Amino acid sequence: xxxxxxxxxxxxxxxxxxxxxxxxxxxxxxxxxxxxxxxxxxxxxxxxxxxxxxxxxxxxxxxxxxxxxxxxxxxxxxxxxxxxxxxxxxxxxxxxxxxxxxxxxx
Length: 106
Ligand SMILES: [Zn+2]
Prior knowledge:
Layout: E1 6-9, E2 12-18, E3 33-36, E4 41-44, H1 50-69, H2 75-91, H3 95-99
Parallel strand pairs: 2-4
Antiparallel strand pairs: 1-2, 3-4
Helix pairs in contact: 1-2
Zinc ion binds at residues 59, 63, 75, 78.
């Protein structure tokens, strides 16, 4: 899957990089993605199915939204929002175009 090189979340532009064998901060758990707010960086494990890539990137975006909105969502809340938002985007392919003003209706 071709990923964007950067993405803007709230006031910050994050670079998106691929990193093999991505681990959590304690190096105890394998990760598919990780957002580092202070480094303006999103790391993505490259060995993922295309469908997983989408959800992983959306998951990290929801983490970013959580931080910039001051909501401080738990990992479980981030997962729930990610899964539902991902489903809405997949089930309504014209939604993003409509949101951007490029399509009026189906
Ligand atoms: Zn997470």
